[in-house]
Amino acid sequence: MAVVSHHTMSLDGFVAGPDDTMDWVSGHGRATDLAERTRSRIDAIVAGRRWHDLALDRGNGVDGIYGGAFEGPVFVVSHRPPPGDVDPRVTFVTGLDDALAAAGRAAGEGDVAVFGGSLTRQCAAKGVLDEVVVHLVPVLLGGGVRLYGEDGDPTVRLERVECAPAEQITDLRFRVVC
């Protein structure tokens, strides 16, 4: 099992735009080979409460993950109680360690995706992040949610494993080396 940060990102490093907008993601071409291969390896997802609430509000919830192609469980890290009517594929947990452990068990031989800049940073700080896969789109957002780079984030060394252009998207895959 690998823990993979998997995001579409603007050229200036944002995984969500101002007010958590995501409309900038589309219109750059179809899903790339690396996107499909990464998605096919992901058997469980760890996401934050912010992602969960926004996915429900703006993106069809779990049914919207990977354009509806994801069928596995999602573990949401949150200290707030879950809403009354929770999708049965979603489990709320109070800590990242518990979420990663549960997702790892659920994924079996598959990988665990981490959704969100905050969880990516937390995984990097704990030394449990194995890979970063980024689909870089030619947009400068100027603000929003950064993938990485908040004050106090540790330096993470990466080794490029793959770099491939596809239409207007540039796919990047890195292995975490320390």
Description:
By secondary structure, the protein is of the alpha/beta class. The chain has a single domain (3-176), classed as Dihydrofolate Reductase, subunit A (3-Layer(aba) Sandwich), CATH 3.40.430. Helix content is 23%, strand content 32%. The protein is built from 4 helices and 10 strands. The strands form 2 sheets. Strands 5-4-3-6-1-7-10-9 form an 8-stranded mixed sheet. Strands 2-8 form a two-stranded antiparallel ribbon. The mean pLDDT is 93.
Can I get a quick summary?
By secondary structure, this protein is α/β, with parallel strands linked by helices. It is built from four helices and ten strands, in the order E-E-H-E-H-E-E-H-E-H-E-E-E-E. It starts with a strand and ends with a strand.
Measured as a percent range, the helix fraction is 10-25%
Reported CATH architecture: 3-Layer(aba) Sandwich
**What is the 3D form?**
globular
Radius of gyration: 15 Å
CATH class: Alpha Beta
Strand percent estimate: 25-35%
Mean pLDDT: 93
Described by strand count, sense and barrel closure, the largest sheet is:
8 strands, mixed
Secondary structure blueprint with pairings:
Layout: E1 3-10, E2 14-16, H1 33-41, E3 42-48, H2 49-58, E4 74-77, E5 90-93, H3 96-107, E6 111-115, H4 117-126, E7 131-137, E8 145-146, E9 158-166, E10 169-176
Parallel strand pairs: 1-6, 1-7, 3-4, 3-6, 4-5
Antiparallel strand pairs: 2-8, 7-10, 9-10
